[in-house]
Amino acid sequence: MADTVIVLGGGIVGLACAFEAAGRGYKVTVVETGKPGGQASGAAAGMLAPYSENTEQPDAFFRLCLDSLRLYPQWLAEIEEASGRRIEWIPSGSLNIVYHEADLSPLRTRLLWQNRLGAQAEIVEGSRLRELEPHLSQNVEAALYCPQESHVYAPDLVAALEDACRSRGVAIMDHSGAVTDVRLSSAPGVTVSTTARGDISGDRLVVCTGAWTGALGRWFGLHFPVHPIRGQICAYEVPVGVVRHMVFSPQAYWTSKGNGTLVCGASEDVAGFDTTVTERGIGRLVRSGPKAFPFLADKPVVHRWAGLRPAIRDGWPMLGQLEGAPQVVIAAGHYRNGILLSPVTGASVTDLLDGKADWGLLAAFAPERFSLAVEGSLSV
Ligand code: GLY
Questions:
Q1: 306 lines ligand 1 (CB under 6 A)
Q2: Residue 338 CA: which ligand 1 atom is closest?
Q3: pTM above 0.90, yes or no
Q4: What distance lies between CA 98 and its chain's CA centroid?
Q5: Binding site membership of 231 for ligand 1 (Cβ less than 6 Å)
Q6: Ligand 1 pocket check for 310: Cβ under 6 Å
Q7: Shortest CA distance to 293 belongs to which of 259, 260, 336, 256?
Q8: Which domains does the chain show, CATH number per domain?
């Protein structure tokens, strides 16, 4: 009989794990406190931008992001087929703009190592830059153009992924209420207690609880230093085609969606689990708009919202099986890259369930890497 897997958390990462595990024959139940995709996943701008978001060096995290970017076309096709829905995926490419020539120097360094890893990027300026992005301000001196980056419409992707999971037989237990206990045993493996759905038991547990993962470490005698970083974001009504690329400036980014909105993100503030939108957070984004795109000076913001990025102390996700409890896999803390990293996370988690994961590749993301033994040990 197939192993039963409980996936805790119904954001895009949890759904990606459930989709892949169900595809490989596991009997999967997703347990979600509220509604699937109701937190960071649904709020995200949906950028698939490993080169623009990771600019320092080609480390293990950058390579994980790149692996995931490469999985995206096939992954989206599988979700579309399983869900019967079309997912908006715009291969726009990106422009990282600078206002001063001196700021080009870090972009040139980045270009050197990123082009060795497939970016196909180039510095563009003058008429070539204006051809690519006609409405950019004359204040923009130059840009790093990266044609390999793209973006998806995250709310639709999450909805399609939820449907795709159901079509593969995944049970989605939403509005489960809070998790009040996690008990490990040799058989059946794990029992999760929730306030609204009672006890749920399975052979394996995959923890994908995003910004809320910090509170779960205690069930495993481990320290998970995950904390929420609020991202405030806003949107203007701007016809499709006016802004052609994902445009990153030092202050903000802009992506044009198929529904005729230009999404502008995103603040990084520490406000606990508060998803309130503030004048300060949105004001900074709005003020940066006309500097890059003068036409934004006259545009009202039509929509504003916020999500909580799950940040980990060292900036890298936790992705691995617990040494002391091999029936538990942790996949959390994807910070700014949750949408991008979902396919590789689903594949890696299911490789771990299958017992055929590449441990060398995942060593850098070990969930135990922060843990000094804490009071109370595993009850396995
Ligand atoms: N990946 C975009 C953001 O976190 O704002």
A1: no
A2: 1
A3: yes
A4: 26
A5: yes
A6: no
A7: 256
A8: 4-65+155-223+314-370 (3.50.50.60), 94-148 (no CATH), 226-309 (3.30.9.10)
